[in-house]
Design a protein that fits this description.
The protein has about 240 residues and is mainly alpha-helical. Helix content is about 75%, strand content about 5%.
């Protein structure tokens, strides 16, 4: 008798999961895209219902309840699957902060590169003089000469020292900013999927614990709105 009961339960569970998969076809959402939507929903804390709005509205009211239930069954199954963990890990890898200084150069190497770039730009400006109309060439030569003199004044031991110190401070600031961004990222997008899911569900329950499911709706400006002005001010999740 027990074996028969277990068999019946197994069939019922399998039938439910099949129905959960079929609902994605009804909503015209491929499974891989549905998985991405679930990852985004838990990562950012909101559900993109716009892409299924038309299909959902086209269904009969009774069918909508079934579709909603089947979507939730499928989503729950997916969140507890290795596929969700893999997709979320890929999301984190792509979204994680990157250091602001991506040159890979040492301070001295970057300073040498900057100096070389200034020299090349000056040489290019000198070569470009021949293409300037004769009536403007004298003014351009005067401007270029002033720029060359300024660069000579800039390229002194004292100015080089100041530039080096400024670059070091800039890199230190960038490193501190990067560490702060990494800390915020780890807080907002924890590596453990169970921590993420628990956080979002807790937030959702806290934000919807007093929802009035019997709230009256009225049609205003071609859109259904709450009859209560206070309800209209509640957050979107509510």
């Amino acid at each position: 008798m027990k074996r028969l009961s277990y068999a019946v339960i197994a069939v019922l569970v399998a039938t439910t999961l099949i129905g959960a998969g079929d609902v994605l076809q009804q909503l015209s959402v491929p499974k891989n895209e549905a998985g991405q939507e679930v990852v985004n929903a838990f990562a950012y804390g909101h559900v993109n219902y716009h892409r299924v709005r038309n299909a959902f509205k086209a269904a009969a009211p009774a069918a909508r309840a079934t579709m909603t239930e089947q979507v939730l069954i499928w989503a729950k199954s997916y969140v507890n699957s290795p596929a969700f963990a893999k997709e979320y890990a890929a999301f984190r890898e792509e979204a994680k902060p990157t250091p602001e200084d991506g040159s890979g150069l040492s301070v001295d190497e970057e300073l040498a590169q900057r100096r070389k770039q200034r020299q090349e730009e000056m040489a290019e400006s000198r070569r470009a003089l021949k293409d300037i109309p004769a009536e403007y060439r004298a003014a351009a030569e005067a401007g270029l000469k002033a720029a060359e003199e300024a660069m000579k004044e800039y390229d002194t031991p004292e100015m080089r020292k100041n530039e080096r110190e400024a670059l070091i401070l800039e890199r230190q600031s960038n490193d501190e900013n990067y560490r702060e961004r990494v800390a915020r990222f780890d807080q907002d997008f924890p590596a453990d999927t169970k921590t993420l899911v628990k956080r979002r569900l807790t937030q959702f329950l806290a934000g919807t614990n007093n929802v009035d499911f019997s709230a009256q709706l009225v049609n205003k400006s071609w859109k259904m709105r709450f009859a209560s002005a206070a309800y209209e001010q509640t957050p979107n999740n509510w």
